[in-house]
Specification:
The structure holds 2 protein chains of 2 kinds.
Chain A (H helix, E strand, L loop, with lengths): L4 H31 L3 H32 L3 H33 L9 H23 L2 H31 L4 H33 L3 H20 L3
Helix pairs in contact in A: 1-2, 1-3, 1-4, 2-3, 3-6, 4-5, 4-6, 5-6
Chain B lengths: L4 H31 L3 H32 L3 H32 L10 H22 L4 H31 L4 H33 L5 H10 L2
Helix pairs in contact in B: 1-2, 1-3, 1-4, 2-3, 3-6, 4-5, 4-6, 5-6
The chains are: A mainly alpha, B mainly alpha.
Chain lengths: 234, 226
Protein backbone atom coordinates (compact mmCIF):
# COMPACT_ATOMS: atom_id res chain seq x y z
CA UNK A 1 0.00 0.00 0.00
CA UNK A 2 1.44 3.41 -0.90
CA UNK A 3 2.40 5.64 2.01
CA UNK A 4 0.23 8.55 3.01
CA UNK A 5 1.55 11.97 2.09
CA UNK A 6 1.74 12.97 5.77
CA UNK A 7 3.89 9.94 6.48
CA UNK A 8 6.34 10.96 3.78
CA UNK A 9 6.50 14.50 5.15
CA UNK A 10 7.22 13.10 8.61
CA UNK A 11 9.93 10.83 7.20
CA UNK A 12 11.56 13.75 5.38
CA UNK A 13 11.42 15.80 8.57
CA UNK A 14 13.09 13.02 10.58
CA UNK A 15 15.74 12.52 7.91
CA UNK A 16 16.54 16.23 7.94
CA UNK A 17 16.90 16.24 11.71
CA UNK A 18 19.15 13.18 11.56
CA UNK A 19 21.23 14.89 8.87
CA UNK A 20 21.56 18.06 10.97
CA UNK A 21 22.70 15.95 13.95
CA UNK A 22 25.30 14.30 11.76
CA UNK A 23 26.49 17.74 10.61
CA UNK A 24 26.76 18.92 14.23
CA UNK A 25 28.87 15.83 15.03
CA UNK A 26 31.06 16.49 12.03
CA UNK A 27 31.67 20.09 13.09
CA UNK A 28 32.43 18.99 16.66
CA UNK A 29 34.91 16.35 15.50
CA UNK A 30 36.46 18.51 12.79
CA UNK A 31 37.30 21.27 15.28
CA UNK A 32 38.50 18.69 17.82
CA UNK A 33 40.75 17.08 15.21
CA UNK A 34 42.05 20.49 14.14
CA UNK A 35 42.90 21.89 17.57
CA UNK A 36 44.40 18.60 18.75
CA UNK A 37 46.22 18.08 15.44
CA UNK A 38 44.67 14.61 15.33
CA UNK A 39 45.10 13.51 11.73
CA UNK A 40 43.41 10.14 12.27
CA UNK A 41 40.21 11.79 13.47
CA UNK A 42 40.45 14.26 10.57
CA UNK A 43 40.55 11.35 8.12
CA UNK A 44 37.47 9.83 9.74
CA UNK A 45 35.58 13.13 9.44
CA UNK A 46 36.52 13.31 5.75
CA UNK A 47 35.25 9.76 5.20
CA UNK A 48 31.98 10.43 7.02
CA UNK A 49 31.27 13.39 4.73
CA UNK A 50 30.14 10.92 2.07
CA UNK A 51 27.37 9.78 4.46
CA UNK A 52 26.07 13.38 4.56
CA UNK A 53 26.20 13.59 0.75
CA UNK A 54 24.20 10.37 0.54
CA UNK A 55 21.63 11.64 3.03
CA UNK A 56 21.14 14.76 0.93
CA UNK A 57 20.47 12.56 -2.09
CA UNK A 58 18.06 10.37 -0.14
CA UNK A 59 16.06 13.37 1.13
CA UNK A 60 16.01 15.02 -2.27
CA UNK A 61 14.87 11.82 -3.93
CA UNK A 62 12.05 11.39 -1.43
CA UNK A 63 10.92 14.98 -1.97
CA UNK A 64 11.05 14.69 -5.75
CA UNK A 65 9.07 11.45 -5.65
CA UNK A 66 6.50 13.01 -3.32
CA UNK A 67 6.12 16.03 -5.62
CA UNK A 68 5.73 13.79 -8.68
CA UNK A 69 3.34 11.32 -7.02
CA UNK A 70 1.16 13.49 -4.78
CA UNK A 71 1.30 16.80 -6.66
CA UNK A 72 1.08 18.85 -3.46
CA UNK A 73 0.20 22.54 -3.52
CA UNK A 74 0.52 25.57 -1.26
CA UNK A 75 1.93 24.83 2.22
CA UNK A 76 2.74 21.17 1.51
CA UNK A 77 4.65 22.06 -1.63
CA UNK A 78 6.50 24.84 0.24
CA UNK A 79 7.43 22.32 2.89
CA UNK A 80 8.94 19.90 0.40
CA UNK A 81 10.78 22.68 -1.43
CA UNK A 82 12.14 23.92 1.90
CA UNK A 83 13.30 20.40 2.75
CA UNK A 84 15.20 20.18 -0.56
CA UNK A 85 16.85 23.54 0.11
CA UNK A 86 17.69 22.74 3.73
CA UNK A 87 19.24 19.39 2.80
CA UNK A 88 21.53 21.01 0.25
CA UNK A 89 22.49 23.70 2.80
CA UNK A 90 23.27 21.04 5.41
CA UNK A 91 25.42 19.26 2.86
CA UNK A 92 27.41 22.50 2.51
CA UNK A 93 27.87 22.65 6.30
CA UNK A 94 29.20 19.09 6.15
CA UNK A 95 31.59 20.12 3.36
CA UNK A 96 32.93 22.92 5.52
CA UNK A 97 33.64 20.52 8.41
CA UNK A 98 35.48 18.33 5.94
CA UNK A 99 37.44 21.34 4.65
CA UNK A 100 38.62 22.17 8.20
CA UNK A 101 40.08 18.65 8.32
CA UNK A 102 41.65 19.11 4.91
CA UNK A 103 43.63 22.08 6.26
CA UNK A 104 45.09 19.85 8.95
CA UNK A 105 45.75 16.90 6.65
CA UNK A 106 47.55 19.06 4.10
CA UNK A 107 49.61 20.85 6.73
CA UNK A 108 53.17 19.94 7.59
CA UNK A 109 53.35 22.54 10.35
CA UNK A 110 53.88 21.40 13.93
CA UNK A 111 52.46 23.61 16.65
CA UNK A 112 49.65 24.34 19.03
CA UNK A 113 46.41 24.96 17.14
CA UNK A 114 44.33 25.23 20.29
CA UNK A 115 42.33 28.43 20.22
CA UNK A 116 39.53 29.47 22.58
CA UNK A 117 37.71 31.61 20.02
CA UNK A 118 37.59 28.72 17.58
CA UNK A 119 35.94 26.58 20.26
CA UNK A 120 33.44 29.35 21.11
CA UNK A 121 32.61 29.72 17.41
CA UNK A 122 32.11 25.96 17.06
CA UNK A 123 29.78 25.78 20.09
CA UNK A 124 27.82 28.77 18.85
CA UNK A 125 27.45 27.25 15.39
CA UNK A 126 26.20 23.96 16.81
CA UNK A 127 23.64 25.86 18.92
CA UNK A 128 22.47 27.68 15.78
CA UNK A 129 22.10 24.40 13.95
CA UNK A 130 20.17 22.76 16.79
CA UNK A 131 17.87 25.79 17.14
CA UNK A 132 17.24 25.76 13.40
CA UNK A 133 16.07 22.16 13.61
CA UNK A 134 13.86 22.86 16.65
CA UNK A 135 12.33 25.78 14.72
CA UNK A 136 11.80 23.53 11.72
CA UNK A 137 10.14 20.76 13.70
CA UNK A 138 7.99 23.09 15.84
CA UNK A 139 7.25 25.49 12.95
CA UNK A 140 8.49 28.23 15.28
CA UNK A 141 8.82 31.44 13.25
CA UNK A 142 10.29 33.48 16.09
CA UNK A 143 13.06 30.92 16.77
CA UNK A 144 13.81 30.71 13.03
CA UNK A 145 14.22 34.50 13.00
CA UNK A 146 16.55 34.23 16.00
CA UNK A 147 18.68 31.70 14.11
CA UNK A 148 18.90 34.14 11.21
CA UNK A 149 20.02 36.94 13.50
CA UNK A 150 22.51 34.79 15.45
CA UNK A 151 24.77 34.86 12.42
CA UNK A 152 25.87 38.42 13.20
CA UNK A 153 27.41 37.28 16.49
CA UNK A 154 29.32 34.55 14.66
CA UNK A 155 30.63 37.17 12.21
CA UNK A 156 31.85 39.24 15.17
CA UNK A 157 33.57 36.21 16.68
CA UNK A 158 35.33 35.54 13.38
CA UNK A 159 36.41 39.18 13.22
CA UNK A 160 37.88 38.83 16.73
CA UNK A 161 39.66 35.62 15.80
CA UNK A 162 41.05 37.25 12.68
CA UNK A 163 42.38 40.25 14.59
CA UNK A 164 43.96 38.14 17.30
CA UNK A 165 45.71 35.98 14.68
CA UNK A 166 47.02 39.04 12.85
CA UNK A 167 48.49 40.34 16.14
CA UNK A 168 50.13 36.97 16.69
CA UNK A 169 51.56 36.97 13.17
CA UNK A 170 53.08 40.38 13.82
CA UNK A 171 54.53 39.19 17.15
CA UNK A 172 55.81 35.95 15.76
CA UNK A 173 56.11 35.90 11.96
CA UNK A 174 57.71 32.43 12.00
CA UNK A 175 54.30 30.93 12.79
CA UNK A 176 52.58 32.63 9.88
CA UNK A 177 51.35 29.35 8.31
CA UNK A 178 49.97 28.02 11.59
CA UNK A 179 48.02 31.22 12.31
CA UNK A 180 46.76 31.38 8.73
CA UNK A 181 45.45 27.84 9.15
CA UNK A 182 43.52 28.91 12.27
CA UNK A 183 42.05 31.86 10.34
CA UNK A 184 40.90 29.48 7.59
CA UNK A 185 39.33 27.08 10.08
CA UNK A 186 37.46 30.05 11.59
CA UNK A 187 36.42 31.16 8.13
CA UNK A 188 34.77 27.81 7.45
CA UNK A 189 32.86 28.04 10.74
CA UNK A 190 31.75 31.57 9.88
CA UNK A 191 30.65 30.42 6.43
CA UNK A 192 28.70 27.56 7.97
CA UNK A 193 26.99 30.08 10.25
CA UNK A 194 25.96 32.03 7.19
CA UNK A 195 24.47 28.88 5.68
CA UNK A 196 22.59 27.96 8.89
CA UNK A 197 21.23 31.53 9.00
CA UNK A 198 19.84 31.04 5.51
CA UNK A 199 18.15 27.86 6.79
CA UNK A 200 16.40 30.14 9.31
CA UNK A 201 15.30 32.35 6.42
CA UNK A 202 13.93 29.32 4.56
CA UNK A 203 12.01 28.09 7.61
CA UNK A 204 10.36 31.51 7.96
CA UNK A 205 9.43 31.26 4.28
CA UNK A 206 8.00 27.79 4.82
CA UNK A 207 5.81 29.02 7.68
CA UNK A 208 4.77 32.44 6.41
CA UNK A 209 5.50 32.45 2.68
CA UNK A 210 7.66 35.57 3.25
CA UNK A 211 11.45 35.84 3.28
CA UNK A 212 13.44 37.69 5.99
CA UNK A 213 15.84 38.73 3.26
CA UNK A 214 13.17 40.83 1.55
CA UNK A 215 12.50 42.74 4.76
CA UNK A 216 16.23 43.38 5.12
CA UNK A 217 16.53 44.72 1.58
CA UNK A 218 13.62 47.09 2.22
CA UNK A 219 15.35 48.32 5.40
CA UNK A 220 18.65 48.85 3.58
CA UNK A 221 16.91 50.87 0.87
CA UNK A 222 15.13 52.98 3.49
CA UNK A 223 18.47 53.60 5.18
CA UNK A 224 20.04 54.68 1.88
CA UNK A 225 17.14 57.02 1.16
CA UNK A 226 17.46 58.57 4.64
CA UNK A 227 21.21 59.07 4.12
CA UNK A 228 20.61 60.68 0.73
CA UNK A 229 18.13 63.10 2.28
CA UNK A 230 20.58 64.02 5.06
CA UNK A 231 23.43 64.56 2.60
CA UNK A 232 21.37 66.70 0.20
CA UNK A 233 22.59 70.35 0.28
CA UNK A 234 19.92 72.72 1.47
CA UNK B 1 -4.65 29.40 -23.71
CA UNK B 2 -2.05 28.08 -21.24
CA UNK B 3 1.54 28.11 -22.42
CA UNK B 4 3.28 24.90 -23.43
CA UNK B 5 5.69 23.46 -20.86
CA UNK B 6 8.63 23.81 -23.27
CA UNK B 7 7.87 27.49 -23.80
CA UNK B 8 7.79 28.04 -20.05
CA UNK B 9 11.13 26.32 -19.58
CA UNK B 10 12.73 28.28 -22.42
CA UNK B 11 11.42 31.48 -20.90
CA UNK B 12 12.93 30.51 -17.54
CA UNK B 13 16.28 29.67 -19.12
CA UNK B 14 16.31 33.06 -20.79
CA UNK B 15 15.60 34.66 -17.40
CA UNK B 16 18.44 32.70 -15.77
CA UNK B 17 20.76 33.92 -18.50
CA UNK B 18 19.65 37.54 -18.12
CA UNK B 19 19.75 37.48 -14.35
CA UNK B 20 23.19 35.87 -14.48
CA UNK B 21 24.38 38.75 -16.66
CA UNK B 22 22.81 41.28 -14.29
CA UNK B 23 24.46 39.66 -11.28
CA UNK B 24 27.88 39.58 -12.96
CA UNK B 25 27.45 43.27 -13.83
CA UNK B 26 26.56 44.06 -10.24
CA UNK B 27 29.50 42.06 -8.92
CA UNK B 28 31.88 43.86 -11.26
CA UNK B 29 30.35 47.19 -10.32
CA UNK B 30 30.81 46.38 -6.65
CA UNK B 31 34.49 45.49 -7.13
CA UNK B 32 34.95 48.64 -9.22
CA UNK B 33 33.31 50.76 -6.53
CA UNK B 34 35.58 49.24 -3.91
CA UNK B 35 38.80 49.52 -5.94
CA UNK B 36 38.10 53.13 -6.96
CA UNK B 37 36.86 54.20 -3.51
CA UNK B 38 33.54 55.36 -4.98
CA UNK B 39 30.75 55.04 -2.45
CA UNK B 40 28.09 56.18 -4.92
CA UNK B 41 28.86 53.14 -7.08
CA UNK B 42 28.47 50.91 -4.02
CA UNK B 43 25.11 52.52 -3.25
CA UNK B 44 24.03 51.82 -6.82
CA UNK B 45 24.92 48.14 -6.30
CA UNK B 46 22.54 48.03 -3.33
CA UNK B 47 19.75 49.71 -5.31
CA UNK B 48 20.18 47.21 -8.14
CA UNK B 49 20.26 44.32 -5.67
CA UNK B 50 16.67 44.99 -4.70
CA UNK B 51 15.50 44.37 -8.24
CA UNK B 52 17.69 41.35 -8.82
CA UNK B 53 16.54 39.58 -5.65
CA UNK B 54 12.90 40.29 -6.49
CA UNK B 55 13.40 38.87 -10.00
CA UNK B 56 15.13 35.78 -8.62
CA UNK B 57 12.31 35.22 -6.18
CA UNK B 58 9.67 35.64 -8.84
CA UNK B 59 11.53 33.16 -11.05
CA UNK B 60 11.62 30.70 -8.18
CA UNK B 61 7.89 31.19 -7.57
CA UNK B 62 7.23 30.74 -11.28
CA UNK B 63 9.07 27.40 -11.17
CA UNK B 64 7.10 26.28 -8.12
CA UNK B 65 3.82 27.32 -9.76
CA UNK B 66 4.79 25.45 -12.93
CA UNK B 67 5.44 22.38 -10.78
CA UNK B 68 1.84 22.58 -9.56
CA UNK B 69 0.32 23.39 -12.92
CA UNK B 70 2.15 21.07 -15.28
CA UNK B 71 2.98 18.24 -12.88
CA UNK B 72 6.12 17.32 -14.80
CA UNK B 73 8.00 14.03 -14.35
CA UNK B 74 11.45 12.71 -15.17
CA UNK B 75 13.74 15.25 -16.89
CA UNK B 76 11.09 17.97 -16.93
CA UNK B 77 10.76 17.67 -13.17
CA UNK B 78 14.55 17.72 -12.80
CA UNK B 79 14.68 20.84 -14.96
CA UNK B 80 12.34 22.78 -12.67
CA UNK B 81 14.13 21.59 -9.55
CA UNK B 82 17.46 22.62 -11.07
CA UNK B 83 16.11 26.10 -11.82
CA UNK B 84 14.92 26.43 -8.21
CA UNK B 85 18.37 25.47 -6.95
CA UNK B 86 20.18 27.74 -9.39
CA UNK B 87 18.07 30.66 -8.12
CA UNK B 88 19.51 30.07 -4.62
CA UNK B 89 23.04 29.91 -5.96
CA UNK B 90 22.65 33.09 -7.98
CA UNK B 91 21.15 34.75 -4.91
CA UNK B 92 24.27 33.79 -2.93
CA UNK B 93 26.50 35.39 -5.56
CA UNK B 94 24.40 38.55 -5.55
CA UNK B 95 24.49 38.64 -1.75
CA UNK B 96 28.30 38.58 -1.86
CA UNK B 97 28.35 41.41 -4.44
CA UNK B 98 26.39 43.53 -1.97
CA UNK B 99 28.65 42.56 0.92
CA UNK B 100 31.69 43.75 -1.07
CA UNK B 101 30.01 47.15 -1.43
CA UNK B 102 29.29 47.24 2.28
CA UNK B 103 32.99 46.74 3.05
CA UNK B 104 33.68 50.14 1.49
CA UNK B 105 30.50 51.80 2.78
CA UNK B 106 31.24 50.76 6.37
CA UNK B 107 34.96 51.48 6.24
CA UNK B 108 36.37 54.32 8.30
CA UNK B 109 39.70 54.28 6.49
CA UNK B 110 40.85 56.15 3.47
CA UNK B 111 43.53 54.49 1.36
CA UNK B 112 44.32 53.36 -2.15
CA UNK B 113 42.22 50.25 -2.69
CA UNK B 114 43.22 49.61 -6.28
CA UNK B 115 44.52 46.08 -5.78
CA UNK B 116 45.76 43.87 -8.60
CA UNK B 117 44.89 40.60 -6.82
CA UNK B 118 41.31 41.59 -6.18
CA UNK B 119 40.94 42.48 -9.84
CA UNK B 120 42.48 39.19 -10.91
CA UNK B 121 40.26 37.17 -8.59
CA UNK B 122 37.23 39.14 -9.67
CA UNK B 123 37.90 38.41 -13.34
CA UNK B 124 38.40 34.68 -12.64
CA UNK B 125 35.15 34.67 -10.65
CA UNK B 126 33.36 36.25 -13.58
CA UNK B 127 34.84 33.59 -15.87
CA UNK B 128 33.59 30.68 -13.74
CA UNK B 129 30.10 32.17 -13.36
CA UNK B 130 29.83 32.64 -17.13
CA UNK B 131 31.11 29.12 -17.76
CA UNK B 132 28.61 27.65 -15.29
CA UNK B 133 25.65 29.51 -16.77
CA UNK B 134 26.55 28.61 -20.34
CA UNK B 135 27.10 24.98 -19.33
CA UNK B 136 23.59 24.95 -17.85
CA UNK B 137 21.91 26.70 -20.77
CA UNK B 138 23.56 24.43 -23.36
CA UNK B 139 23.28 21.35 -21.13
CA UNK B 140 26.92 20.76 -21.94
CA UNK B 141 28.26 18.00 -19.68
CA UNK B 142 31.81 18.40 -21.03
CA UNK B 143 32.06 21.86 -19.54
CA UNK B 144 31.58 20.42 -16.05
CA UNK B 145 35.21 19.29 -15.94
CA UNK B 146 36.31 22.74 -17.10
CA UNK B 147 34.32 24.35 -14.27
CA UNK B 148 35.96 22.03 -11.74
CA UNK B 149 39.47 22.72 -13.05
CA UNK B 150 38.89 26.46 -12.99
CA UNK B 151 37.51 26.14 -9.46
CA UNK B 152 40.66 24.32 -8.31
CA UNK B 153 42.82 26.98 -9.94
CA UNK B 154 40.93 29.80 -8.20
CA UNK B 155 41.15 27.94 -4.89
CA UNK B 156 44.91 27.61 -5.34
CA UNK B 157 45.25 31.33 -6.07
CA UNK B 158 43.11 32.22 -3.06
CA UNK B 159 44.70 29.85 -0.55
CA UNK B 160 48.30 30.15 -1.66
CA UNK B 161 49.15 33.22 -3.73
CA UNK B 162 46.67 35.64 -2.21
CA UNK B 163 47.49 34.66 1.37
CA UNK B 164 51.23 35.00 0.75
CA UNK B 165 50.60 38.39 -0.84
CA UNK B 166 48.62 39.56 2.21
CA UNK B 167 51.28 38.30 4.61
CA UNK B 168 53.95 40.16 2.66
CA UNK B 169 51.86 43.31 2.86
CA UNK B 170 51.75 43.12 6.67
CA UNK B 171 55.48 42.51 6.95
CA UNK B 172 56.22 45.44 4.64
CA UNK B 173 54.35 47.84 6.87
CA UNK B 174 52.50 47.12 10.09
CA UNK B 175 49.97 49.86 9.26
CA UNK B 176 48.79 47.74 6.34
CA UNK B 177 46.77 45.64 8.80
CA UNK B 178 43.59 47.62 8.12
CA UNK B 179 43.80 47.21 4.36
CA UNK B 180 44.76 43.54 4.69
CA UNK B 181 41.66 43.04 6.83
CA UNK B 182 39.48 44.57 4.12
CA UNK B 183 41.19 42.68 1.30
CA UNK B 184 40.71 39.41 3.17
CA UNK B 185 37.00 40.10 3.37
CA UNK B 186 36.75 41.02 -0.32
CA UNK B 187 38.72 37.89 -1.24
CA UNK B 188 36.46 35.83 1.00
CA UNK B 189 33.31 37.10 -0.73
CA UNK B 190 34.77 36.55 -4.19
CA UNK B 191 35.76 33.02 -3.23
CA UNK B 192 32.22 32.45 -1.96
CA UNK B 193 30.82 33.62 -5.33
CA UNK B 194 33.19 31.26 -7.07
CA UNK B 195 32.06 28.43 -4.80
CA UNK B 196 28.42 29.00 -5.67
CA UNK B 197 29.25 29.01 -9.38
CA UNK B 198 31.12 25.74 -8.88
CA UNK B 199 28.01 24.27 -7.24
CA UNK B 200 26.19 24.66 -10.57
CA UNK B 201 28.28 21.71 -11.73
CA UNK B 202 26.48 19.19 -9.53
CA UNK B 203 23.07 20.45 -10.56
CA UNK B 204 23.92 20.35 -14.27
CA UNK B 205 25.18 16.79 -13.90
CA UNK B 206 21.95 15.81 -12.13
CA UNK B 207 19.84 17.55 -14.77
CA UNK B 208 21.53 15.81 -17.68
CA UNK B 209 22.19 12.34 -16.27
CA UNK B 210 19.52 12.02 -13.57
CA UNK B 211 22.28 10.87 -11.22
CA UNK B 212 23.73 12.65 -8.23
CA UNK B 213 27.38 13.60 -8.30
CA UNK B 214 29.44 12.43 -5.33
CA UNK B 215 32.11 15.08 -4.92
CA UNK B 216 34.89 12.81 -3.58
CA UNK B 217 34.48 10.28 -6.39
CA UNK B 218 34.31 13.01 -9.00
CA UNK B 219 37.53 14.63 -7.73
CA UNK B 220 39.27 11.22 -7.85
CA UNK B 221 38.09 10.71 -11.43
CA UNK B 222 39.49 14.07 -12.49
CA UNK B 223 42.81 13.34 -10.77
CA UNK B 224 43.00 9.95 -12.53
CA UNK B 225 42.03 11.33 -15.90
CA UNK B 226 43.32 14.90 -16.05
Amino acid sequence: MPKKFEEILKEVENDLIEMAELCADQIENAVKAFIESDKELAKQVRKRDTAIDLMEMKIEEKCIKAIALYQPVSGDLRELMTAIKISSKLEKVGDNASKICRILLKSDVEGNRKNELLIVMKDYLITMLKNAMVAFRARDESLARDVYNMDKRLDDLYEQLYRSMISKIIENPKNLTLYTEIIFAGKYLERSGNIVASIGDRIVYMITGERIKEEEIEEELEELKREEKTNKPT
Amino acid sequence: MPKKFNDIVNEMDRKIELLGEEIIKNLNLSVEGYCTNKKDICNLVIYKNNNIIKNLESLEMYSVKSLCLYRPVSKDLRKLLTIIKLCSMLEKIEECAVKISFVLLNSKFNFDRNDKYIKRMSSLTEEIILLSISSYINEDINKIDEIYKLHREIERIFYEEFQRYLARKIFEDIFNVAIVNELTNIGKYLERCENSANDFRKEIYFLITGKKMIEGEYAKKIRRDP
